[in-house]
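Example 3.2
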Amino acid sequence: MMTNPTRSPTDIASAAMTARPTSDLLAIFFPNQGGAWRVQLRENGKSEPLTLMVNDRSGAVSILEPLAGDRIAFWIRWLHEGSHAGEVWRFVVFLSGVIPAALGVTGILIWLRQRRQRALMATQSDRIPLPRASTSAAIGGITPAE
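Structure, written as tokens:
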């Protein structure tokens, strides 16, 4: 990471927006060791973001061709936030975040209920004497074989 950038993020954003005026700013990344800021823009009518590199010293703007990793990162972000799909997909994303938490809470409640039932059973078994087993009882006149 570059230690002392000469331009502010506001300057970098204005340079990128001047180069692509019909775009919306998505993200600005601090300069790398070579002194280049990375800026992501969303152009009107396009789904994939455009990445620009802005030189910290000269302010020169160049377009960075997306790599395979950038496309994968964009796809993963799209899946996780659900911003580019309809309301049904947003609801699915919402449920996939809420359901694990709900399962965790209900699992703890079931465990606590079973724990309480076991404690009640243990205290009741101390109070109620268990019936004794008879040694050899004849049932219907027949004695058990030994």
